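Lab notebook, bench 4. Still working through the backlog of constructs that have no structural model yet. Next entry is a single chain of 427 residues. Request: give me the structure tokens for it.
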Amino acid sequence: MQPPPPRLSLLTWGLAAAFYLYGFFQRVAPASLAHDLMRDFGLTAAALGNLSAFYYYCYAGMQLPTGVLVDRYGPSRLFFFGALVGGAGALLFALAPNATIAAIGRGLIGGAHAVAWVSMLKLITHWFPAHRFGLMSGLSLAVGTVGAVLSGPPLRAIADDLGWRPIIAGAGVGAVLLAIVIRRWMRDDPSDTGHESFAPEAARRGGGRSAPILQGLLEIWRYRNTGLLFWVNSGICGSFLTFAGLWGVPFLTQHHNLSVQRASLITSLMLALFALGGTVVGTVSDRIRRRKSPYLAGAAALSLGFGVLAVAPAAPLPLLVPLLLAGAFGAGGGTALSFAYAKESVPARLQGTVTGAANLGVMTGTLVQMPLIGVILDLNWRGELAGGVRVYDLAAYQSALLFLAAWTALSTVLLIFTRETHARQAS
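Model written out:
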């Protein structure tokens, strides 16, 4: 058999990336819609953080099961059902009469999108040569981040004209249509289309209905890098998403006198640099055959940016913005590498399960940080209101940002103790 033609590999990857983009759009949308959601549902900062984090609660809860399920049943089934449920969740969120129903909708979106990243990395392993894994995982992250960028100024501009509900509902309908296309065209492995698979033989043997689920879940934690990368990802990618995906826009509008559109533009630029970092650093990492040092450089850049922001939140934007953009680039590069790093740290038959664990770290950081920052803001609220929405002073935001910077710095230190894989799969 011959390897699959590039157009077939790219079609398979493209369908997966389209759903990943959709999920990222829904993930970050509350940042641009924060004022609308607080107004329409009567939310405090803590309640807004909790509503946004419902996506991450369900996403995180699905990570380890998703890793096992993708090893056992294959990614195409998970993508199909994920797109269906994710579309239904968006429709429920768009039509929600109160915050409780909206939270359920957000939870459905998050739980459905939980299958996307782990399943996509599984597809890449089967449809692309091993030396392209870093590049393709970086490109995948970049495509997903495009969805986050679309949920910035473009979403805000359309919401100003049409309202936020029709946009979210339309995206939900699009996800259902994508599920139909995935059902028709996506295949788990090139051998399903008469071509040779790129996956290691051990990975192809690792799945199957007889694979012991609990054994895989327990076994991955025996490897040193699994637990360390879990916590590192919670601080690097988790903290980045917490700021760029929700709290950055309110902070910039209230304390740097920016409009929502201009604040969203800054966080969208951060997301774009996050995507670019994943692609560039992933390519460099594949060439130099190193995972640890590029991730460490990116983590240090994010720690520096958040550290300056926390110590001097009122510093001029010409100082803060370049630091935040550099940190975003570093966080994207490190996050993209972390999944290759985790995958190579365990035997190939456990790659889906360990990827789920690494992604669970990202979600654990975000689901804790988003609402907890809201709690910190509410505890420091001085009673000021504007248009019925709470206004938080600079001291309140500084307390929250110090918490975020400390978590990021600790994660950078933990990364030092990981063991380099030299881009080789563990036996």
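Notes after review: Residues 224-255 form the longest helix (32 residues). Residues 205-211 have pLDDT under 50 and may be disordered. Flag for follow-up if needed.
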